[in-house]
Amino acid sequence: AQKVTQAQTEISVVEKEDVTLDCVYETRDTTYYLFWYKQPPSGELVFLIRRNSFDEQNEISGRYSWNFQKSTSSFNFTITASQVVDSAVYFCALSEALGETSGSRLTFGEGTQLTVNP
Amino acid sequence: EPEVTQTPSHQVTQMGQEVILRCVPISNHLYFYWYRQILGQKVEFLVSFYNNEISEKSEIFDDQFSVERPDGSNFTLKIRSTKLEDSAMYFCASRQQDRGKSLFGPGTRLTVT
Q1: Is residue B44 less than 8 Å (CB to CB) from chain A?
Q2: C-alpha span between A90 and A79 (Å, rounded)
Q3: pLDDT (tens digit per residue) in A22-38
Q4: Nearest to A34 by CA among B13, B44, B99
């Protein structure tokens, strides 16, 4: 069974601080996909990134960066120079590659509530 | 960029009533999903749908739930006899291919009184 753990329930930072959101996952598959979604106060789920298990290269997109470490089963997310608009719940999710006809459901972590104060 | 749409945005219903939540996935997507999120909790998988049939469902998706793709565009979730604990945000998602990213609709907030 797959499992995603986000140990940080809430994080509060002051604007312009860097912040890292932790994500640890469990899966028996060798092929899988990891995701981060943002849920702002308005409630929608906004896709941020998808990473497959064969690509351990870190990725940077503007102020966002992701650190994938297979050895520790972690996929951490860092926001550099945080802004008030970054305040949201952030979910890490895992999808196992079950085959073309299967659904490949997303298993979500509990989420981390990030509050960026001015 | 194309978006997944959901209607209504908020549905209030009485316990025991039937509700139908509607979704229009992105037109060239092949995989469709329903997830739910009880207030303050994580997002939970309900069901996936591919090639006009359910491909996977969770233990939450019992006989009270059903899904349908009645035409080429809509994807619906029906709850036959709602319970108080069905109150949640229901998200529809679609995916173009098996390993693509899932794009979510804005959600329908269901309140059962």
Answers
A1: yes
A2: 11
A3: 999 999 888 899 999 99
A4: B99
